[in-house]
Amino acid sequence: MCIMSREWNASVTVAAVIERGGRFLLVEEETRDGLRLNQPAGHLEAGESLIRAVVRETLEETAHTFEPRALLGCYMSRGLSSRDQGDTTYIRFAFTGDLGTLDEGRQLDTGIIRTLWMTAEELRACPERHRTPLLMACVDDYLAGKRFALNVLYTHPTSVATTTGDAS
């Protein structure tokens, strides 16, 4: 029997892949490595479904509402945690859907400098600016037409806080 000597850390995240007219909605954010690009994305919080998390994160990072229409895919990568600098495995659930209204008075999340729209070619030209290697993987899957019905996700009611009213 092999026993691993180090603790395994995993972090569940969500991301919104939103395209309009051949351009993708991104956020430019301050990180420990300087300004980086990412999809609107963030961590799943306790008592929250994956769908609620991506709606919340999109609103917090872009000031836009978001209506998920499909699961784009599930992705995994390793890196240093932005929270504690430890080695972490990130498990990302990426969604695509419709961008809704802008709340012009809403302040963007701490660390988010601005939103911007970029083509896939513009993104491919600046991999050093990507916050995660998953950014381009999500865009490529979107462009390849990968989509999964949201009902492939199941959240048992005991996992979701009763205040959200969402068991999806």
From TrEMBL:
CDD domains: NUDIX_Hydrolase. It is an enzyme of class 3 (hydrolase). GO terms for molecular function: hydrolase activity. InterPro entries: NUDIX_hydrolase-like_dom_sf, NUDIX_hydrolase_dom, NudJ. Its EC number is 3.6.1.-. Residues 7-142 form the Nudix hydrolase domain. Keywords: Hydrolase, Magnesium. PROSITE patterns: NUDIX. Its cofactor is Mg(2+). Belongs to the Nudix hydrolase family. NudJ subfamily. PANTHER family: NUDIX HYDROLASE 23, PHOSPHATASE NUDJ. Monomer. This is Phosphatase NudJ. It comes from Cupriavidus campinensis. The lineage of its organism: Bacteria, Pseudomonadati, Pseudomonadota, Betaproteobacteria, Burkholderiales. The gene is nudJ.
